[in-house]
Amino acid sequence: MIDKYGRKINYLRISVTDRCNFRCRYCMPEEGVRALKHEDILSFEEILQFVKAVAPLGIERVRVTGGEPLVRKGIVEFINALSKINGIKDISMTTNGSMFKEMSKELKKAGLKRVNFSLDTLKAEKFSYITRRGKLGDVLEGIKEALNLGFNPVKINTVVAKGFNDDEIDDFAKLTIEYPLVIRFIELMPLGEGGWAKGRFISAQEIKSKIKSDLIKVENIEGSGPAEYFKLKNAKGFIGFITPISRHFCEKCNRIRLTADGKLKPCLASSKELDVKEVLRNNADMEQIQKAFGEALSIKPYSHNMKYDESTDYEETKRRMWQIGG
Ligand code: SAM
Ligand code: SF4
Predict the structure, then answer these.
(1) What is the mean pLDDT of each run of 10 residues along the chain (326 residues)?
(2) The dihedral formed by the CA atoms of 103, 107, 112 and 115, expressed in degrees to the nearest 10
(3) Is 143 helix (H, G, I), strand (E, B) or coil?
(4) What residues contact 97, with CB distance under 8 A and at least 6 apart?
(5) Side-chain-side CA neighbours of residue 73 (13 Å)
(6) Domains of the chain (ranges, CATH numbers)
(7) How far, in Å, from the CA of 176 to the mean position of ligand 2?
(8) Residue of 19, 22, 70, 158 to mutate, ligand 2, most atoms within 8 A of C-beta
(9) Is there a contact between 94 and 118 (Cβ–Cβ < 8 Å)?
(10) How far is the CA of 319 from the centre of ligand 1 (A)?
């Protein structure tokens, strides 16, 4: 489907849960998180019904995210059912990686093609600090397993924050020499809780300047999305930069999001949403679901205006990343 600004929308991000076993400081508060009630979350059957309706409209790629997608019971069977839907050519997942190793073989068999791991530091103590609950070793094991099993590409999302991990940028970049990983540095967005991001923003330009070896520009890599990609000399992997703040990529945006509580969210940084849960729970036929999808696209803004106001978190959308599905 083409939106009113001429953008081809072929990519759906599905948040399957708002729950998470981590509490990353830039994303979730430590205490007091009120998880959605079971009945407020779309069932897997409802999500599948939605995807079956929008695949004929041109949705070809699906990313499963959360919260932490691997904490939701039945996720493997869900991926398997997704992969059987006509028209869905590519299924990927964004995960914190903590539970990936134990589920990796089943996920691969179920049809998962690509995985993005979120990893912000290579140091165990800093990892415990930023995630508040995670163990670095579990995630590293998950990443190794993904490479061994031939998931391709295996990407690492690294959110960079001043004074936290900006001293590790070159170490992350060097990983691409030995391993065929795609390391993507992401600008910290003011979409967390508790103001942790205050004073910690670093632009991609600055991040690049901390990589000591020459960056060689590459045009396109598999599933490249909005990142700009480079390579180090003789490297097996790639390095990407995602710039939601310093240079947003809205004019090329091909995505729409479905939240765990059944809202279609045409833009990450906007409060505009369309309730599709109500539609799905009212015995909707395919045409009604497609109509709701068309309505959601009609309110997709041309661009967001997410600013870095360091005194406060961005208020245009009240949802935070764990509630949106990054
Ligand atoms: N739990 C999974 C994970 O961490 O990969 C999936 C959901 S998480 C919300 C998706 C992505 O959003 C992660 O890569 C995370 O680092 C990123 N993210 C969360 N809060 C962010 C923020 N304030 N700025 C930039 N990226 C953020
Ligand atoms: Fe959980 Fe992912 Fe948010 Fe970290 S970034 S708290 S792992 S949802």
Answers:
(1) 92 97 93 91 98 98 97 98 97 98 98 97 98 97 98 96 98 98 94 81 96 93 76 97 85 93 90 94 95 94 71 59 74
(2) 10
(3) helix
(4) 117, 118, 119, 138, 139, 142, 143
(5) 2
(6) 11-324 (3.20.20.70)
(7) 24
(8) 22
(9) yes
(10) 13
Distance (Å) from CA 36 to ligand 2 centroid: 16
- For 183, the 3-state DSSP assignment is strand
State the pLDDT at residue 248: 75
pTM of the model: 0.95
Which of 159, 198, 203, 304, when mutated, tests ligand 1's pocket best, judged by the most ligand atoms within 8 Å of its CB? 159
Q: How far apart are CA 263 and CA 47, in angstroms?
A: 11
Q: How far is CA 266 from CA 119, 199, 236, 271, 302, in A?
A: 26, 29, 35, 9, 10
Which of 63, 51, 60 has the alpha carbon at shortest distance from 1? 60
The Cβ-side half-sphere exposure at 183, using a 13 Å CA radius, reads 32
Instruction: Return the pLDDT at 317.
Output: 61
Residue 38 makes CB contacts below 8 A (sequence gap 6+) with none
Distance CA 238, CA 232 (A): 7
Q: Which residue has the least CA distance to atom 17 on ligand 1?
A: 326
Q: How far apart are CA 261 and CA 324, in angstroms?
A: 10
* Token duo for residue 290: 């497609």
Residue 68, ligand 2, Cβ within 6 A: yes
Alpha-carbon gap, residue 105 to 94, rounded angstroms: 16
What's residue 194's pLDDT? 67
Report which residue type is found at 20: C
Q: Give the distance, in angstroms, between the CA of residue 201 and the centroid of all CA atoms in the same chain.
A: 19
162 CB neighbour count, 10 Å cutoff:
13
Chain-centre distance of CA 53, in angstroms?
23
Q: What distance in angstroms lies between residue 286's CA and the mean position of ligand 1's atoms?
A: 32
Q: How many residues does the chain have?
A: 326
Report the chain's terminal Cα–Cα distance, integer Å. 22
Residue 66 CA: which ligand 1 atom is closest? 7
